[in-house]
Amino acid sequence: MKRLLTFLLGALLATPASIAQITIANHSVTPFSCSPARVLDITVVNSSPETISTLIKATLTSTTNQGVFIARSTTIELKPGLSRLSSSAITEEIIVADNVLGQYCSGTSKLLEGSYQLCFEIEAVGFELPLETCFPLIASSSTFLHLVSPSDKSTINTQNPLLNWVHSGTIPVTDPRESFELVLVEKPFDQSAVQALAENSPLLFIPKLQSHVTMYPINVDKLEFGKEYAWQVIHKYDGYFVQSTECWTFQLDDWEDPRDVKYVDVSASKGSDVVQVFQSFFFRFDEPYQSKELVIEVYDQQLNRIEPQPDNDQADADQIKQYGFNGYRLNLSDYNLKPGNYKLLIRDAKGKQYSVKIHYNR
To answer: Which CATH class is domain 145-252?
Structure first.
């Protein structure tokens, strides 16, 4: 009995020592090469003088505890010294997680952006104490998805624009599980692009696109001149969300041909007429009171406010001059405008606001 106890105690003490002599010297997994079928391409060192029968399990998980895949080996006879193992020869089982991380990794051999942990569990056959060695993996921005045109906050003049975007993969997409969704909605001026896309019914929804460009179809509701629209592209893999673009907007031009008018009656302006302007804008109010305190703001077609940049401190006083009763001249030379279309917002002394469109020429 004493000999038997001594033998069992010796076997138990030998268990961790034997496994501790097996180490993972190298592995081949990177954020850009993470195929489950090749994860067991590893280099193992057996520091003991004996051949050890082992089983190896590789597990890849995210730091948020989402599984990516598991690969298990057949029984491996590890001889003393260094052994280079081949996945194709020793892989017994592969389990890919049914989520976007697993499916994307399995289909593309790449990891989505994030932090991961790759663990190898080595179990010596006949012993109960496995050895686990873990390696961190950090996948930075290996993928991108950006809208291209129409550019954000742009003004276009066609009802059937080309909608174009780019991403980090190949085009056309060759993997049938990979695709893009395009969503386009009308955006009221009191909504943000994000709100419009979240709350409004799509005017255009195209799923399962495998190219980077599509034209707004002629057989759906037409885009209307003068209205603003928001759009976004979503990248999917095997039905799972991968990433999305930012939300962009564009507006259809409602500008008519400019006309020459000496003095524009802003109180009677419809807001749709376009006035030809050279250096100065002349306007008047058809009102019974005199507006001595005017506020005028200049905006480009993307509704970005343009501030005057006078050459001297006295130039501000010369920007607006009054002529007679409710007649005025706005000097635009200090705004450094390029030839093109602009919008003027004018508020009189009582706070009433008027809008005038101009086509500026130097």
So the answer is: mainly beta
The candidate with the shortest Cα–Cα distance to 57, out of 112, 133, 136, is 133
Give the residue with greater pLDDT, 66 vs 255. Answer: 66
Q: What is the per-residue pLDDT across 122-150, written as a single tens digit (0 to 9) for each? A: 988 666 667 888 888 888 765 678 999 99
pLDDT band at 13 (very low <50, low <70, confident <90, very high): very low
* CATH number, domain 264-361, options 3.30.70.260, 2.30.42.10, 2.60.40.1220, 1.10.10.10: 2.60.40.1220
Instruction: Identify the pLDDT of residue 1.
Output: 41
User: Average pLDDT, whole number, for the chain?
Assistant: 81
User: What does pTM read for this prediction?
Assistant: 0.51
- pLDDT value, residue 355: 84
10 Å CB burial of residue 288 (0-12, 13-18, 19+) is exposed
145-252 and 264-361, same CATH topology: yes
Going by the DSSP 8-state scheme, the letter that residue 10 receives in this structure is H
State the DSSP code for 333.
G
Residue-wise pLDDT for 202-219, tens only, equals 999 999 998 899 999 989
- Asked if the peptide bond before residue 31 counts as cis, ω within 30 degrees of 0, the response is no
| CA Rg value for the chain | 35
Q: Which CATH code fits 2-139?
A: 2.60.40.10
Per the CB < 8 A criterion, the answer to whether 244 and 235 are in contact is yes
Q: Following DSSP, what letter does each residue of 66-126 receive, concatenated?
A: -EEEEEEE--EEE-SEEEE--HHHHEEEEEE-SSHHHHHHHHHS-PPSEEEEEEEEEEETT
What stretch of H or E contains 252? strand 248-252
Cβ-Cβ contacts under 8 Å for 203 (sequence gap 6 or more) = 184, 185, 186, 220, 221, 223, 229
Residue 10 has pLDDT above 80, yes or no: no
